[in-house]
Amino acid sequence: MTRAGDDAERSVRSDEEKRRGLITGGDDAVRSDEEVSTAPQPPVTLTPALPDRRNAELLLLCFATMIIAVAMLIVEAGHEQGLRLDLVGYGVAFLVLFSFAHLVIRRSARYADPLLLPVVALLNGLGLVMIHRIDLGVGIDGADARPGASAQMLWTLVGVGVFALVLVALKDHRQLSGSGYVCGLAGLVLLVIPALLPASLSERQGAKIWIRLPGFSIQPAEFSKILLLIFFAAVLVSKRRLFTSAGKHVLGMNLPRPRDLAPLLAAWVISVGVMAFEKDLGTSLLLYASFLVVVYLATRRFSWMVIGMLLFAAGSVAAYFLFSHVRVRVQTWLDPFADPEGVGYQMVQSLFSFATGGIFGTGLGNGQPGYVPAASTDFIIAAFGEELGLVGLAGVLILYTIVIVRGMRTAIAVRDSFGKLLAAGLAATLGIQLFIVVGGVTKLIPLTGLTTPWLSYGGSSLLANYVLLAIVLRVSHAARRPLSTHPVRPTPIGDTGTAVIERV
Length: 504
What we know:
Largest sheet: 2 strands, antiparallel
Number of strands: 6
Strand content: under 5%
Strand order of the largest sheet: 1-2
Structural class: mainly alpha
């Protein structure tokens, strides 16, 4: 019995030692606290680093350059032009220019969306091809002589330079939130200046939207749309409770209080003022529609949209009866064939261009887009519709859709409220502007005179839209950037703080 008891006691001791070994990690784990704290620990990463996709961006840029070069060769062949060295120089310069933009993104916004720059470069290049094609038709198709592809290439160079400057200088998109009121004031000043200038310095084709300087002219409304959108986003983020405050419940909607309608009324007054004094329907509609979208995204209340649409309808009816230029635009939209040789000539020629293009188009260089007035600016969509047809025009619109959708995805992914409103507002502005342009050219809505982003001829539009692209890429970088890309070592248990919990 004694021997059996000794064996049982040794067995219990052995089991106890095993349990201690399991708790401390075995024989090798019986170490002092200092050894535990100085022992090497495996690196831990909070969030795995995402691929930046910059190589894919560069590959897509090369592919876009190849498409543009082939399109340029087709245009030259259609006009029986030989392969000239200057065309090769244009292609090389285009690739080098956007490779520079790619390097700036790689250095300053490494995790930005890799699709945005190649798609915009392709749109810009297709615009250059079509403007060059219209230049070749000067004196043949009846197009007006004006600086075309060469000037647009120069503006593209300046635009990419401004794009790089904004991307490098703007380290964080949230810096714009603190300058919201300054941006709003600057946007209003830029809108007002053309209305105060004499017609000789500001008016063109009946619209007072220009600032003419020696050697070139500026359309300040292109920059105002971005500045005012920054202001709208900053104000809506800081005053969100004001805009979402409860009001009366009518017809299933929570209507805002009358005193909360001041920002909406201010945007409406600005839009009507632009329409009245500058005779610019396009900018007026774009600013007001963009503000409504941002307000809805910030408040998620359908009542704001209803009130905004009612104000828009009332303003439109009043403008029709008060302003003759609005009345002419509406009457031309309703029946352009009533005066096909006068005010309806531009719309009639645009409709003929789409009819001639049909499904697959006449082919690059084989149409007659020069018969449409302002074919390289306001009506460049009609030129694409004639020579590329419905299929080619749909492809161009799909490129815009990619930019808009990626901008909206950036708004969904970014973490701060200001970035969400800013990215969504900029993407929505592009979509609204595209709808206004295409709707006006195809007679869906009255003509407004807006240019197609990155596609149409015009320095102001190109510069402003490259600034818009830089801001969206900066927000995209913040949205896609990992929370931490550096390995973090765990804190030893012995170095952590302790707390005494008293049992109640």
